[in-house]
Amino acid sequence: MLTSVLVSVDLSPNADRVWSRVARLPLAPGARVTLLHVVPKELAGSAQLRAVDDATDALYALTSRGPTELLGRCEIERLVLIGEPSKRIGEQVKKRRAELVVLGRGPGRAFRDRALGSTAERVLRAGQTPVLVVRRLARHAYEKALAALDVDDAAAKAVAFSRKVLGAVGALDVVHATSAPFRGQFYPSLGADYARDYERRHQRTRLAELKRSIKRARPGVAVKFHGRTGPARVVVPEAVSSFSADLLILGTHARSQMGAAVLGTVAGDLLREVPCDVLVVPAGRI
C-alpha cells in the first residue's frame, strides 16, 4: 500500500478526475496525501497574491466536493507554492519522500502538448519517482491493468511497483511487442517463409527472456505474458483496447536517458495517445 503520495493539480476540471483516482488508490491507514498547486512565477504583485488565495480555496473545495473516502483515514495537506511546476513538484517529492506523483491529463491536443510536453516530462526526467498520469474519472479501483514492457531492467521494477497501485487486482497482463531485426527489408534469397519463421522464433526468445527477468525479481504478483508482433506504437494501443485496460504500466530507463529514450519516442507516444491512465515507473526507483 502507498504511504505518501504527491498530487499536483491545476484548477481545471482535470483536478476532479485526479482526485477521484487518488481516493481509490490503495492507501495505507494514516497515509500522507499532499495536494499541490503551483502558481506560475510569472504572476507578480497583487495578481500573484490573488492567485494564491484562489488556489487555496480551490484545493479545499476540491476535497470537499470529491470522494470523501480519504478524509477519515489519511493525512491530507493542501499546499500552494509559487514557481516552476516541475521544480516545485520535485522538491516536494524529496521533502515528503513521496512514493508516487499523480498528475492529470486532458483529452485535448492543446492540453496534451502543453502539460505532457512540460510538467510531466520534466518530472519524469528529473526524478526517480513513479508518475501516474490520470485521464479518466475514477468510480472504482483499477480493475484491468496492462503492462507494456521490454526486455530490460525496468520491466521487473515496473511489475513490482504495480502492486502498490493495483492493490487486490489479480493477475497482471504483460504485453511484449517484437519485430524481427530485418522486418520491412526485402532479401530475395531468404523468402517470406523464412522471415515469418524467424520472427516467430525471435518473439519466443524475447518473451522467454522477459519472463526470466521478471521471475528472478520475485515481483509478488501473478503475471500473464502475451507476445505480439509489430511495432509497439501499434501493438500497445491495440492491446489496451482489446484488454479493455483502465491502466497502462510502462517501465523506463535511468533518468539520464529519460528525455530521449522515454518521452521522445515510443513510451512518450503511448503516454500521450492511449485513452486510459498511464503509470510510468523509472527503473532506478525500486
Can you give keywords for this protein?
286 residues; alpha/beta; Rossmann fold; 10-stranded mixed β-sheet; 10 helices; 10 strands
Q: What's the gyration radius in Å?
A: 20 Å
Write the H/E string, N to C: EHEHEHEHHEEHEHEHEHHE
Annotated CATH topology of the largest domain: Rossmann fold
The CATH architecture of the largest domain: 3-Layer(aba) Sandwich
Largest sheet: 10 strands, mixed
Describe the strand arrangement of the main beta sheet, using strand numbers.
Answer: 3-2-1-4-5-10-9-6-7-8
Helix content: 40-55%
CATH homology-level superfamily of the largest domain: HUPs
Question: What overall form do the CA principal axes indicate?
Answer: elongated
CATH class of the largest domain: Alpha Beta
Number of helices: 10
Mean pLDDT over all positions = 84
Domain UspA: 1-135, 142-282
InterPro entries: Rossmann-like_a/b/a_fold, Universal_stress_UspA, UspA
Organism: Archangium gephyra
Pfam families: Usp (PF00582)
Structure description:
Belongs to the universal stress protein A family. This is UspA domain-containing protein. Residues 1-135, 142-282 form the UspA domain. The protein is α/β, with parallel strands linked by helices and 286 residues long. The chain has 2 domains: 1-139, HUPs (Rossmann fold), CATH 3.40.50; 141-286, 3-Layer(aba) Sandwich (Rossmann fold), CATH 3.40.50. Strand 7 (172-178), helix 7 (191-216) and strand 8 (223-229) form a beta-alpha-beta unit. The protein has 10 helices and 10 strands.
